[in-house]
Specification:
By secondary structure, the chain is α/β, with parallel strands linked by helices. The chain has 16 helices and 18 strands. Helix 5 links the parallel strand 5 and strand 6. The radius of gyration is 25 Å and the shape is globular.
């Protein structure tokens, strides 16, 4: 019997996960977490009898605890609650179905605790893929995709050598506005955006799908999940949403995964892998499906897709600082534009407490990003050197190479500046 915990049990993916579990009796629910929907979570608790549950706010947790006082269930709240569910000893798989970057910390905690991850929270990889995937490899943990497209790619890659991968063809329905011009999209309503032609999804994903922004995020997600260069990940429009994605190999063979537009199928595969369970839901009838169409996406109309792809990876990140004069004056008072600025505890404020501006030095920026984003030292340094020089078109600096300016900053092992050189001449040195 597989034992699972679900973060986001009252949302679209969470409720469909429980539908899958309802049809497959060989699964035990050990933990459930929800945002604010006390009514639905109470119903889920009484049906699936988890040992641990969480609400996001303490107020909602107290309400839930009162409602289920007749049950032997522990109720927790907030991020600490999510972390407790993510790492509970009784579970084997964590289904991350909550929306947004809030899913990153619980996912990391679960990986470190040795849990396999059924991943439906795309923000986790979009923003922290460089942390999640190496950590999962280090801990021997599987990241099992729940998105229909990534599940399809995952299935098409089974049994084939990674070196033979030529392209990933990431399908998109095109959303409710496929084929529209920019002029025709003026004045569209939220209600129109939420009317997806083939999929029933949560509000955020449905809105993002209407602009194809969601597909751009899925490109980034696929890059991390499958260790594939961005140039090998190609979005294509497939209105019927029957082919959920394809993989093309070096010999010209193209593998595709087909199925009805139903999220319960990829959810079930994530829970059953490496096995396949008999399906209790709608199945594909190719005769009734009819013609299958494929088109290139119109990135001039759907700019969000193009922008998401352009923003991909560390290669598009630069470190900057707009620190003001008070930055180098230490704690105390200074002047800025006729106003008194007070620097204390790393913050610069006006007399009334309003933030006056930045006092971030570039060495601290590099140190911070290295720590917060778990980057290597070369990666962190490139964000402050190579990348800004490239963006500004400065070909004579940014790297240490013959013929370029000898602009050099020397650090010690604790990342303290020992010296700065501009065009090879020392402009700052310490006694060390």
């Amino acid at each position: 019997m597989k034992k699972i915990a679900i973060l986001g049990s009252t949302g679209s993916i969470g409720t469909q996960t429980l539908e899958v579990i309802r049809e497959n009796k060989d699964i035990e629910v050990t933990g459930l977490a929800a945002g604010t929907n006390v009514d639905l979570l109470e119903k889920q608790i009484r049906e699936f009898q988890p040992k641990l549950v969480a609400m996001w706010t303490e107020e909602k947790a107290k309400e839930l605890k009162s409602r289920i006082r007749d049950l032997d269930v522990k109720v927790v709240s907030g991020m600490d609650g999510l972390l407790e569910i993510a790492t509970m000893e009784e579970s084997e798989i964590l289904v991350t179905a909550i929306v947004g970057m809030i899913g990153i910390r619980p996912t990391i905690a679960a990986i470190k605790a040795g849990k396999d991850i059924a991943l439906a929270n795309k923000e986790t990889l979009v923003t922290a893929g460089h942390i999640i995937m190496p950590l999962a490899k280090e801990c021997g943990v599987k990241i099992l995709p729940v998105d229909s497209e990534h599940s399809a790619i995952f299935q098409c890659l089974q049994g084939n050598a990674h070196k033979d991968l030529k392209r990933i063809l990431l399908t998109a329905s095109g959303g409710p506005f496929r084929g529209r011009t920019r002029e025709e999209l003026q004045g569209v309503t939220v209600e129109q955006c939420l009317h997806h032609p083939t999929w029933t999804m949560g509000t955020k994903v449905t809105i993002d799908s209407s602009t194809l922004a969601n597909k751009g995020l899925e490109v980034i997600e696929a890059h991390w999940l499958f260790d594939a260069p961005y140039e090998k990940i190609v979005p294509i429009i497939h209105p019927q949403s029957i082919v959920h994605s394809l993989v093309e190999y070096s010999d010209g063979a193209v593998m595709a995964q087909l199925g009805v537009a139903d999220m319960k199928l990829p959810i079930q595969y994530a829970l059953s892998w490496p096995d396949r369970w008999p399906v209790a839901f709608d199945q594909l009838d190719l005769v009734k499906a009819g013609a299958l169409e494929f088109y290139e996406p119109d990135t001039k109309v759907f700019r969000a897709l193009a922008l998401a792809i352009q923003a991909k990876g560390l290669d598009r990140v630069e470190l900057i600082t707009d620190s003001m004069r008070a930055c180098l004056l230490g704690e105390g008072k200074s002047e800025l534009g006729g106003q008194t600025v007070y620097v204390k505890d790393g913050r610069a404020t006006l007399e009334d407490g309003t933030l006056a501006g930045s006092i971030l030095t570039m060495d601290r920026a590099v140190r911070n990003i290295r720590s917060w984003a778990h980057l290597t030292l070369p990666q962190a340094v490139q964000l402050a050197t190579v990348h800004p020089a490239r963006e500004l078109g400065l070909t004579d600096r940014g790297t240490l190479e013959p013929g370029k300016r000898a602009d050099i900053t020397v650090f010690d092992e604790d990342f303290r500046i020992l010296g700065t050189y501009v065009k090879g001449s020392a402009v700052y040195t310490t006694d060390q």
